[in-house]
TrEMBL record:
InterPro entries: aa-tRNA-synth_Ic, Rossmann-like_a/b/a_fold, Trp-tRNA-ligase, Trp-tRNA_synthetase. Belongs to the class-I aminoacyl-tRNA synthetase family. NCBIfam families: trpS. The lineage of its organism: Bacteria, Pseudomonadati, Pseudomonadota, Gammaproteobacteria, Vibrionales. This is Tryptophan--tRNA ligase. It comes from Photobacterium chitinilyticum.
Length: 345
């Protein structure tokens, strides 16, 4: 009875297809967890879902350090399994193992100007923070095009992402419209983002987004000790010197994290009230947050340890998922080549 219901709900939602992914630039962190992974673990029961380990995209700013990418591919897969993404329900695949994705990127690159790529706000921010100077790798500037290839190759309509990805989705839809107008047919489909309630988790110092490349993360694999250290170092209200002083909740990272992770929001609201009135110390709020994070991460870390110790299993999951994805994406590639009149044989 239960499985019947389950199957029905998946087929009812057949029109929606999910594609999302992560760069293989490091282990996944709490930002991924609240920004996208939790949603994916839920959505896999309802929708057809593909998740891509983006190794090619990881290389776009690591061309001189490819080991960083190759050594993190299986880490990312282990993270997926640890949060409950089930390879029997979700297709997990590897970007570099699906040649159609690189080919589509080349075709689409003829439809996007360099100026348009330079205007992409996320690319702009990342270029500034990575201090490329005048040596921006071509691949890096083009990565929104490769993301459009990933999304369209699976005819995905729903993309669970953090808010830094909104400009990529906008650019993808521009490419979709251009290509369809060239083809004079709806060969590609437009997509829309699905943001979680925490579309951008800040780093523990509050200075920027928690991000693999910045090394400012609480990882899904972080030890109890590391979690404790990270919480203790969190940015709060610098003017809240004595416990009795009224404190500020806005911009106080401990409260940002309590909002993001605590299961009882009424309780968090009571804490905020007390903090604002004065009488609640940072030591106490940090202790509450630490307990909450330890509780969330303990089972994830334990599951992850089991998965990462069986590399052969992780490779098999990726290989199977990539093989499955090849058929789907080759069909889209064929349609796109057709649209450009490249179909002699
Ligand atoms: P890198 O620094 O290599 O770019 P990253 O930490 O930004 O790594 P990505 O692989 O670029 O991670 O992002 C994968 C997905 O996770 C995207 O959908 C992104 O929006 C989401 N995401 C990443 N960081 C956060 C965050 N701090 N809060 C919410 N969502 C996030
Ligand atoms: Mg990123």
């Amino acid at each position: 009875m239960h499985s019947q219901l389950h199957q029905n709900s998946k087929s009812d939602a057949q029109a929606e297809k999910i594609l999302t992914g992560d760069r293989a630039t490091g282990q996944l962190h709490l930002g991924h967890y609240v920004g996208s992974l939790q949603q994916r673990a839920k959505l896999q029961h309802q929708y057809e879902q593909t998740i891509l380990v983006a190794d090619l995209q990881g290389l776009t700013d690591n061309g001189n350090n490819p080991h960083k990418v190759s050594s993190n591919i299986l880490n990312v897969v282990a993270d997926y399994l640890a949060v409950g993404i089930d390879p029997l329900k979700t297709t997990i695949c590897l970007q570099s193992a699906i040649p159609a994705l690189a080919e589509l990127t080349m075709y689409y690159s003829n439809l996007v100007s360099v100026a348009r790529l330079q205007r992409n706000p996320t690319v702009k921010n990342e270029i500034a923070s990575k201090s490329f100077g005048s040596s921006i790798p071509t691949g890096f500037l083009m990565y929104p095009i490769s993301q459009a290839a990933d999304i369209t190759a699976f005819k995905a309509t729903l993309i669970p992402v953090g808010d830094d990805q909104l400009p990529m989705i906008e650019q993808t839809n521009e490419i979709v419209r251009k290509l369809n107008s060239i083809a004079q047919d709806e060969i590609l489909v437009e997509c829309r983002p699905l943001l979680s309630k925490v579309p951008r988790l800040p780093s523990t110092d509050g200075k920027s987004k928690m991000s693999k490349s910045m090394g400012n993360c609480i990882l899904l694999s972080s030890s109890e000790k590391d979690i404790s250290k990270a919480v203790k170092s969190m940015y709060t209200d610098p003017n809240h010197l004595r416990i009795e002083d009224p404190g500020q909740v806005e911009g106080n990272i401990v409260f940002t994290y309590l909002d993001a992770f605590h299961s009882d929001l009424n309780y968090v609201n009571d804490l905020k009230q007390k903090y604002k009135e004065g009488g609640l110390g940072d030591g106490t709020t940090k202790k509450i947050l630490e307990e909450c994070l330890q509780e969330i991460l303990r089972p994830v870390r334990e599951r992850r340890e089991t998965f990462i110790s069986d590399k052969a299993q992780l490779i098999e999951i990726l290989q199977k998922g990539s093989e499955k994805s090849q058929d789907e994406s080759s069909q889209v590639l064929k349609d796109v080549k057709n649209a450009f009149g490249l179909n002699l044989f």
